[in-house]
Amino acid sequence: MTNLADTTHAADPGLVALVCGARSGNDDAWAQLIERFDPMLRRVLSTFRLCRADVDDVVQGTWTKLYIHIDRIREPAAVAGWLATTARRQALELLQTHTREVLTDELDLDAVSNETPESVVLEAERHAAFLRAVSALPDRQRRLVTLIAARPALDYEQVGSILQMPMGSIGPTRARGLANLERDAQLRSLVAA
């Protein structure tokens, strides 16, 4: 399939003069290039089903790329094809970024994570070591430490009721359980890391 943009202006000597003028910084040449090819760019982009703002962004980006790279265009008569190809590529890039984005009304700061792969692995190792160390505790200490870790807002009366443990023994049992966890060498080395 032949691209109309590639053939329409191929033999146009006026086009070569416009591109050469734009290369030398002639503002009038730039204005004429934009006037001549802006509608063609918008027709090319109409096949991408972009919203008007995105079309405007892609067109502007295409002109910006031409401004930056105009010295690299070897065939000034082929500028229409260069513009059309650049616009298509930018539209595709824009569509790819839209598919990766999830637009919401609110910014969810809780979803932003500064975790590195190393910190995730270290946290998983710490968690596994903690679970292993807790499971090695005597039954009464394990149940108490597990309950306090899972539900820290409970008071001693509630803990005693749930575990069927006298309130006077909760503090000493908790202290022994935590002391046993502190003595666990693997858990201690990972907590210090």
Write a brief structural summary.
The chain has 193 residues and is mostly helical. The protein has helices at 4-8, 13-23, 27-46, 52-69, 79-100, 117-135, 139-150, 156-163, 167-183, 185-192.
Features:
193 residues; mainly alpha; 2 domains; disordered N terminus; Arc Repressor Mutant, subunit A; Rna Polymerase Sigma Factor, Chain: A; 0% strand
Overall number of strands: 0
Instruction: Kindly report how far apart the N and C termini lie.
Output: 63 Å
Query: What helical percentage do the residues reach?
Result: over 70%
Mean pLDDT across all amino acids: 83
CATH topology-level name of the largest domain: Rna Polymerase Sigma Factor, Chain: A
Quaternary structure type? single chain
Q: Strand fraction band?
A: under 5%
Major sheet characteristics:
none
Assigned CATH architecture of the largest domain: Orthogonal Bundle
What is the string of helix and strand elements?
HHHHHHHHHH
Q: Count of DSSP helices?
A: 10
Label the overall shape. Answer: rod-shaped
Considering the protein shown, what is the CATH homologous superfamily of the largest domain? RNA polymerase sigma factor, region 2, helix turn helix motif
> How many domain regions?
2
CATH class of the largest domain: Mainly Alpha
Rg, please? Answer: 34 Å
